[in-house]
Amino acid sequence: MATATTSSPRKSVKKQYLQRPHVAKVQDMYIWTDGTGEGHRWKRRTMEFDLNSIEDLPEWNFDGSSTYQSEGSNSDMYLIPAAMFRDPFRKDPNKLVLCEVTNYNRKPAETNLRITCKKVMEMVKDQHPWFGMEQEYTILGTDGHPFGWPSKAFPGPQGPYYCGVGADKAYGREIVEAHYRPCLDAGVQMAATNAEVIQNQWEFQVGPCEGINMGDHLWVARFILHRVCEDFGVVASFDPKPIPGNWNGAGCHTNFSTKEMREDGGLKCIEDSIEKLGKRHRYHIRAYDPKGGLDNARRLTGHNETSNINEFSAGVANRGASIRIPRTVGQEKRGYFEDRRPSANCDPYAVTEALIRTCLLNEEGEEPTDY
């Protein structure tokens, strides 16, 4: 059976409607995470005028039975505006509104990890925790086949593709370019991008962001990527091991520092934090992918630039370790460290919260403390 595809003529038709004179009203797109802990959902509403404060935006509701978040017999769930960004597709004054989700009884939805992350970040705000997350992703066709790969064969082995250039090395650059600019327009703290080790794998970096902003900015950057890929008729996959075998997986390496770490002599604080992380490895593995470590088990094999999921390790400039201390940090005795364990499909709120709990709140054991 033939399937419908998005064609260029259809995109041209859409443009003639979006280029009409702008009416004196505002369109706000509410975005949230569904019950999978990975997927984005959205609804758009018309506002009579521009509201520039997140506190002024009204709450909304949706059918949670259609997003894996509730039963049909009691399906209403609430969208609580949490962070606001400019809409890079419809331009000012329209907005993207990142939302928290609560159940009918106003308790946080199971996948609303932002609420506890924000509480923890408030507890340590005087230490000014900074994060930078390196989001890897793989471009697939709508049939799930790696974009640009031969239909019944494999491309050449890994080696020439990382930061590569050329039609035989970089597949999907137009998508990467089309994603970068809208993120900047939206106000996302976009830091960098590059081609990754697999031929159709890419990375974008968000940060430095302080506290809760890290999760907000990464979720919105992911949403914008999905929207751009939609226009190109391809899929951005955050699967930690999208291609089985001797191919690199996809992670979300997380860089972390505090004010003390960034100051002279901060290496001692970095080393102390790494020692704490080593004692709580299993807790972090569970927090670093939406399936409690099952997704990362396919990726963290000790091969293809990963550590072994069952072992904790750290080293200077070692990309096969759980924690990497950049060489410049080792030389300057201050800066940050990189946690290489988070999976590409991690929830950034869970990752950043776990780092704060272990490194700054000195929690121990395999369960988080209830404050």
Give a verbal description of the structure.
The protein has 371 residues and is α+β, with helices and mostly antiparallel strands. It folds into 2 domains: 89 residues, Glutamine synthetase, N-terminal domain (Ubiquitin-like (UB roll)); 241 residues, Creatine Kinase, Chain A, domain 2 (2-Layer Sandwich), CATH 3.30.590. 27% of the residues lie in helices and 23% in strands. It contains 10 helices and 13 strands. One of its GO terms (molecular function) is metal ion binding. Keywords: ATP-binding, Cytoplasm, Ligase, Magnesium, Manganese, Metal-binding, Mitochondrion, Nucleotide-binding.
How far is the N terminus from the C terminus? 55 Å
Mean pLDDT: 93
**Sheet with the most strands?**
8 strands, mixed
Q: How many helical stretches?
A: 10
As residue ranges, the low-confidence spans are: 1-7
**Which CATH class of the largest domain is shown?**
Alpha Beta
Cofactor: Mn(2+); Mg(2+)
Catalytic activity: L-glutamate + NH4(+) + ATP = L-glutamine + ADP + phosphate + H(+)
Family: Belongs to the glutamine synthetase family.
Keywords: ATP-binding, Cytoplasm, Ligase, Magnesium, Manganese, Metal-binding, Mitochondrion, Nucleotide-binding
Secondary structure elements and their pairing?
Layout: H1 8-18, E1 26-33, E2 40-47, E3 60-63, E4 76-86, E5 95-102, H2 114-123, E6 130-141, H3 173-186, E7 190-195, E8 201-210, H4 213-232, E9 234-237, E10 252-257, H5 259-262, H6 267-278, H7 281-287, H8 294-299, E11 314-316, E12 323-325, H9 327-332, E13 337-339, H10 348-359
Parallel strand pairs: 1-5, 11-12
Antiparallel strand pairs: 1-2, 3-4, 4-5, 6-8, 6-9, 6-10, 7-8, 10-13, 12-13
Helix pairs in contact: 2-10, 3-4
